[in-house]
Give the backbone structure.
Amino acid sequence: MEGIKSRSPEEHAQLMFAMRISLALGVVMLVFKGAGAWMSESVAVLSDAAESVVHIVAVGFAYFSLKLSFKPADSTHPYGHAKIAFFSSGVEGALITGAAMFVAFESVNDLVREPRISRPDVGIWFTAIVVVLTGIVGLYLLRTGKKQRSIVLEANGQHVLADCYTSLGVIIGLLLTWATGWKYWDPICAIVVGCNMAWVGLHLMSRSVHGLMDRVDPVLGKKLEGALKAETDSRKVKFHKLRYRDLGDSLWAEVHLLFPEGLLLKDAHLMATEIEQAVADECDDQVHLTTHLESAEDHDAVHNEHQVEG
């Protein structure tokens, strides 16, 4: 099987550019939200600004993780360094969850005491600008992350889009406060915002744990099995014991191929290599397939004999 392929310089540049855009967006969001919170005295806008602080810290860690994931496999990391993507996603999720707890604390305090919001109209305008920016950049990051199979960038895109939805919730609260004059709409909507942030954070942490623990993805498994079945059936070969792990930017899979008796080793090896390449070509994800060659006729007898000896 061929070695792990590294990304091209063009792909590296595209991913790093997208991450720089995300970092710049975080700074812009913090400025606009901070100004809006200060001028409107809205706890909802303040909670949204707190999320932007988290965004900047998370992007900084994601930037480091993305650069590390580009390092090729070596003697100490034979599978490469891309697995750092899952750890990065978990850290980002934990930071978002922490910000959600801060939002909940501030919102409850504002419910206990009379809300101080004074200029909801100012908060609406500042937050509306943020909604447009986060919506555009979030979709760009998510699309680029999926296209390049970068979990770091994809998680960051989900984070930015969650921030967009959060800001929409803030605007709804400010509009209700402005229209009715009832200031408690502001902390109530801030609590809803905090719940949404917590959901996004927990989702990212869950995905991180599943990736680090190599949890099976039924969709990917079905895709690999379908490609393998098509290639082995056409060559009158059988397979079993398919296993795979998500490395973050590619899939590493292994499978046992059962060949008919009498086939020369060189011919079986050539056929296995063709199957490996065909499966990699048929799958959208970058797949590195390792095959183990076995004889179909005495397969069970050989394995049973070794089990008895063991």
The two ends are 29 Å apart (CA to CA). The chain has two domains: 9-212, 218-309. The first strand starts at residue 238 and ends at 246. The first helix runs from residue 9 to 40.
